[in-house]
Predict the structure.
Amino acid sequence: MHSETLIKEKLPKHIAIIMDGNGRWAKNHSLKRIMGHKKGMDAVREVVKTCRELGIKVLTLYAFSAENWRRPQSEIKALMSLLKLYIRSEISQLHKNNIKVNAIGDLQKLPKDVLKLIKDGFDKTKNNRGMVLNVALSYSGRDEILHAVTQIAGKVKANELTLSGIDEKIFSQHLYTAGLPDPDLLIRTSGELRVSNFLLWQIAYTEIYVTDALWPDFKKENLHKALLEYQQRKRRFGFTDEQINSG
Ligand code: FPP
């Protein structure tokens, strides 16, 4: 573990991660892409465990984007199989660790068997309060916003909501992440400086940390380093330094 210590009170409540670079990792090791995803699953296990140990309240992982449906069928199939494997092998451990597992995204697009496994498996964990693990699947930030807009418009039409009653709080309550705090820290692996349609509304004030490490190489130490850097950041939320320091 890193020699510098983390300040427990200054840890993020919500960490979101864009797990990128599985394919490149596989290529670097002369392996098939799916082996990169498999190794990526080990990294998921380690990061979830570490976050739980640290007392992080919410962890959101970008596992499969709405755009990922454009990948070759063989890779999509392999990713879905891995997801099933992950749920089957991990759910009881996650449950034991008091973790509530939740899927966010356009889940209806998932194959029926995956959807059923998610519903049954995740349902078991719904009363857990130790940590929320959001798995973003078939997820698009723009779709999520459109979905919220449609829901709100429907409520206005049905006179359940007035136009002047629509504010940021109401809007947030119609997102897949309703009831959860916005991410304090967004981590992206493999060096790409993009947001890639992830949590577009929620990351308005999120600190962004990009590392060159490829996702399968992202270990406990890498997370520790990201958290140390996060703790050095000054979050101003639009205020001046003076206001922050005096308040
Ligand atoms: C990005 O790497 C990664 C993905 C599209 C899938 C992420 C999936 C996992 C980490 C494994 C399973 C996850 C769970 C939650 C069980 P990439 O393929 O885009 O890599 P590249 O940019 O190097 O090609």
